[in-house]
From TrEMBL:
One of its GO terms (molecular function) is structural molecule activity. Residues 815-1218 form the Coatomer alpha subunit C-terminal domain. It is a peripheral membrane protein. Keywords: Cytoplasm, Cytoplasmic vesicle, ER-Golgi transport, Golgi apparatus, Membrane, Protein transport, Repeat, Transport, WD repeat. Pfam families: B-prop_COPA_B_2nd, COPI_C, TPR_COPA_B, WD40. The lineage of its organism: Eukaryota, Viridiplantae, Streptophyta, Embryophyta, Tracheophyta. GO terms for cellular component: COPI vesicle coat; Golgi membrane. This is Coatomer subunit alpha. WD repeats lie at residues 47-88, 89-130, 131-172, 200-241, 244-285. The coatomer is a cytosolic protein complex that binds to dilysine motifs and reversibly associates with Golgi non-clathrin-coated vesicles, which further mediate biosynthetic protein transport from the ER, via the Golgi up to the trans Golgi network. Coatomer complex is required for budding from Golgi membranes, and is essential for the retrograde Golgi-to-ER transport of dilysine-tagged proteins.
Amino acid sequence: MLTTFETKSNRVKGLSFHSKRPWILASLHSGVIQLWDYRMGTLIDKFDEHEGPVRGVHFHNSQPLFVSGGDDYKIKIWNYKTCRCLFTLLGHLDYIRSVHFHHEHPWIVSASDDQTIRVWNWQSRTCISILTGHNHYVMCASFHLKEDLIVSASLDQTVRVWDISALKKKTASPGDDMLRLSQMNTDLFSGVDAVIKYVLEGHDRGVNWAAFHPNLSLIVSGADDWQVKLWRMNDTKAWEVDTLRGHMNNVSCVMFHANQDIIVSNSEDKSIRVWDATKRTGIQTFRREHDRFWILAAHPEMNLLAAGHDSGMIVFKLERERPAFAVSGDSLFYTKNRFLRFYEFSSQKDSQVIPIRRPGSTSLNQSPRTLSYSPSENAVLICSNTDGGSYELYVIPKDNISRGDSVPDAKRGNGGSAVFVARNRFAVLDRSSNQVLVKNLKNEVVKKGLLPIPTDAIFYAGTGNLLCRTDDRVYIFDLQQRLVLGDLETPFIKYTIWSNDMEYVALLGKHAIIIASKKLVHQCTLHETIRVKSGAWDENGVLIYTTLNHIKYCLPNGDSGIIRTHDVPIYITKVTGNSIFCLDRDGKNKIIIIDATEYMFKLSLLKKRYEHVMSMIRNSQLCGQSMIAYLQQKGFPEVALHFVRDEKIRFNLALESGNIQIAVASAKEIDEKDHWYRLGVEALRQGNTGIMEYAYQRTKNFERLSFLYLITGNMDKLTKMLKIAEVKNDIMGQFHNALYLGDVHERLKILENAGHLSLTYLTASVHGLEDVVERLAGDFEENAPSLPEGKHPSLLIPPSPVMCGGDWPLLRVMRGIFEGGLDAAGKGGEEEEDGADGNWGEEMDMADVNGLENGDVATILKDGEVGEEEDEEEVGWDLEDLELPPEIETPRASSNTCTSLFVTPSPGMPISQIWIQKSSLAGEHAAAGNFDTAMRLLNRQLGIHNFAPLKSLFIDLHTGSYSYLRAFSSMPVLSLAIERGWSESNNPNARGPPVLVCNFSELEERLKNGYRATTAGKLAEALRLFTGILHKIPLIVVESRREVDEVKELIIIVKEYVLGLRMELKRREMNNDSVRQQELAAYFTHLNLQLAHQRLALISAMNVCFKAKNLATAGNFARRLLESNPANENHAKIARQVLQASERNNTDASQLNYDYRNPFVVCGATYFPIYKGQKYTTCPYCSSRFVPAQEGKLCSVCDLAVVSADTSGLLSSPSQVRR
C-alpha cells in the first residue's frame, strides 16, 4: 500500500471521490461531512447540518452536487460551490445507510434501516420508486454503471439485484413524477417499475456490502460471516462462483478494482485485503493496530482507493504508477505492461524490445522500480522489489531494438539497488552487509567494497562513482579509492538527476529538491507543498521538474516558477528547446510544448547576457506582476519599468530606480497629493531642488517650501513666502519666515498683532529697539518683564548655505546597460522623443513645469484661500520671477556608446539584509535583528512555539553583533556590524557572518557548572543552568560537522538532567505520597547521567525505598550501586547492609508502578514510565518522550517546542546549509 493522504478525525462511515478534481468527501459518525483536497492535504470545507451520524455520501459525476444520508432519516442534496444544502428529501423511516447518484439519469438510490430502497428524482425532488423485499436493514444499494440494475445488500443474509428498466418510461419528465403521486398509494409496494431480478443467498450472516463489476457480469459481497463471495449473473439467473476467506471479523465493504482484476475488501478485523479476482486467492493484507475499517471508495478514473476507519481515513494506491525508465542520448528505454520498450526522441519512434517478466506474476508492487542502461554494451539493468529486492540483467542484441521478437536470457540476482558504474560493470547494493558488489556482464563479482555509512540505495554518480543514500544524507563514494568524495545532509531522496555535463545533480525528495555540485556542494533547496514527481535538465542548465499538477523550473541560483499546469502526473524524460518529452502513468510517450520565455529571461539576467535581455524585452510579451516583482527583487527596477503601463506602478518603479524624469511624468498623470509628496522626498534625496520645489508647490506645502528656500539661500522667494503667509493669515507661517529671514521688525509686528505683548517687549529689549520698548513700557506700568542677568543676546540669523541656488552636486557614474537602451522599447511612441535618450531627469520640460507652477499659484488664489476683503495688489501671489534652475546641458553621445551623466548612486544593501539572505541559521537572523524570520526558522526546524524564554537571548544577540559609535553630538549613534572571522586581508566587498555572543565553549562551561551544582545538591541552581543551555542551543552557530554532532549530543545530555532534576524536585515537594516519592526516585536512576550523579540517584532511591519498607526494590538499587564500584566506602557499606536486609526479606510493603526488568523511558510531562512496545510521541527539539495524550502540547522539558510537531531538524552550522 502506498499511502497518498491520511486524516485524523471521528469515525469515517462514508467516502466519495470527485471524478475530476483531487477531492474526496468523508462523512463522519459525528454528523460532519468533510471535503478534502487529498493532493494538497488540506481541508476545503465542512458541512454539518445533519443531526447524528452520516453514513452515506456521493459526488455527482458532472454537476457541482453531492448527496448525503444520515441517521436523522434525511437525504440532503448539497452544492459544494455555494457551500450550502439545496434541499432535503424526506421519506425514509429509519437510518439511511447509503446514497448513490445515477451516472445518467437525475436519480438517487438510497438504502435504509426501514427495510426499503428508494429511488428519487433529485430534479423534481420526489420519490419515484420504493423497492421492498428485504426483511431486515438494507445496508447498501447502488446503480450498475451500464445496465438498468440496482444491487442491494441486507442483514437478511441476501443480496438482491433489481431491474429498474421500467422506470425510464415512467420518469420521462418531472411532470410524470407529479402525475404518479396520485397512483402512489395503489402501487407503492407493487414493484411494477422495479422488480427483483435475482435473490443471491449463500451468506450465513447479514450482508454489509455488495457491488457490481464495472465491466463484467459479476457481483462481489461481504458479510458478517467474515466471508467475501463472488457471484456471476446472466440474463436468466445468478449463482455463486467462489468464497474468499481470510478476514477474522465482519467484512464491512468490498469492491472490484476499476483497472485490475483484483477485489479489495476491508473489515472490522482492522485489515484491508487484496484478492486476485481470477485465481480467487489473497494477494496482500494491510493492517492497522487500533482502527476498524468501515468503508471503501474507488476513484472513477485513477488508480486511487480510500478507506475509512475509526480515527479517520486513508487515500492510497496499491502499486507505484511511475514507469521505470533510463535516458541515453537520443534514446529512451522504459517498461510498460511487462515489456521493455525503446523510444527515439528525434524520430518519435516507439517499439517493443523484450518481455521482462514471466506471465502470471501478480504480486503487488513487484513492477520494475528503476532501470539503468549501458549504451556501449546495449545492456539493461531492471530492479524491482521482488523477493525483498532483486535485479535482472539483459544484454539486448543490436538488431533486437527494432524487432522485439526474441527473449534473451536474463541474469538475475538479489540486491537493494543495481546501477551501471562503467561500460561493462555494474554495482549491486547488499543491504544486509552494507556492501557494494561490483559485477561484470556475466553476473560475476569482480570486486567488493564496504560502505562507510549504512546505505539503503545507490545511484549513478559518474564512472566509478556511486551516490549513496541514507535516511538523512547522501554521499558520493569512489569505488576505486574507496573514499567519500563529498556528502550532503538532505531529506529522504527518491531520485537523482544529473545535468548534461555532469556538473550538477538534482536530488528529488518527496517535497523538496536539492541542487548540488558534482562534489555535493550545496547550491540551493526548493520546498514544495505537494509531491515532486520527476525532473530533467535542459541544455541551458535549467532544471525542469514536475509536481502532481505543475510543470516548474528552477534556475541555478534557486529562483523557480510555474511553467504550466497539467491534470494528471507526468514523468519528464528529456527537455529540448521548448519541447518536454514525458511518460504518463499508462506508459505513453507525450510531447508537451512549453513557453520558455520567462525562465530564459531570468537566466539571461542571472548570467548577465544583457543583449539577450534587451532583445527579449523588445520582442516578447513578458508581463505580469510576478515578473515585475522578480525584477524589483533582483535589483532591476529600471528593466521592470519597461513592462508597465499602469502609471502608479510606473511611478513606484521610477522612484525605486531613481528615474526622476519618468516619476515626474507619472505624477502629472496621477496628480494625487501623496504621489507629489513622495516625488518631493525622492527629489530631495537626489538634490534636485527644481523638482523638489515643483512638487511642494503642487501639494501647497508652504512650510517645506520656506525651509527649502532657507537651505538654498533664496532670500527673495523666502520674502515672498512671508507675504503669502500674511495673505493666508497664517501667523505661525509668518513668524517662521520672519525668523528665517532674520527680520526682527517683522517678528515684533507679528507678535504684537497676535497679542503677545510680553514676548514683543522682550524681543525688542534683546535686540536694542528702544523706541518699541518705551512704547510698550507704558502698557505694563511696573510689571514689565525683565531680562535674565549675565546673558549676552544675539540676533538669530540662519547660517549661509553652502550651495546657493541650483541642484546639489551629484556623483558622476557611467550609465548602466539598461539605462537608455530600453526607453524605446518601454513605451513605444507614447513618450516624448527626448525620452528615447533615457536621461534621468536633466532634460525635463522646464517651460511646462513653469507653466504648471504659475497655474498652480493661480489656482490657489482662485480657491478663495485669500480674503475677499483685501485689495487685489495685496492678494496677488506674484511669482512671475520664481523660475526653476536652468536646464543643465549634458553632452549627447551616439546611441551605441556609454554616456557619462549625473545620476544618484543606488544605496547598498544593509548588512543585516546580507546576513539574512546568506544564512538559514536562526542565531544569525536574530543577530541581524530580524526576529520574525528567526522565529519562523526555529518553528520550522525545531517546532518551537514558546519564544518567551528566548526573548532576552534574541536581544543580546542583536546588540552584541554591533558596535555603537557617536561621531558628533548632533548626529545619531552609528552602528557598525561586527563580522565573524574578519581580517584586513579579506575582500572588502565580501561580508562575513555576524559575531554571536553565544558560543559553544560557553555552553561547555555552563555544563560543567551544572555538573558541580548537581554534585553539591543545589538542584534548583543546576536545573536553571541546564535549562539555560537548552534555551541557548537553538541559537548557537558552530563551524564543523564534528561540532554539529557535539551540539546534538549536548542536547541529549542536558535533556536527561533537566528531566531528572524536575522529577527530583517534584519528589521533594511530595511529603504525603510515599508511593509516588519512591516511583520518582526509581525513575531518576534510569536516566543517562554521569556516573557520580547516577550513584547519588541510586543512593537516594535506595534510602527512600528502604525507609518505606520496600526492601526488594531497595535491594535492587543497592545491587546497582555496588556494581558501579562507589569510591565512598561509607556508601558501599550502607549498600551492602541494605542488600543483606533485602535478601533476608525480599518483599515490598507497597506496590510501585516500576518494573526495572522491562526497559522504559520516562514521560517528560506525567513522569510515568513508557515501557518498550507502548506508543509514545517525541519533542522534535530535545527528543524527550511523552505519552500520546501530550501530542500538540508544549514540551515540559525544554519549554520551547510543541510535542510531535513536524520539523526539518536542527541547523547550527553553515556546513549543513552549504551553498
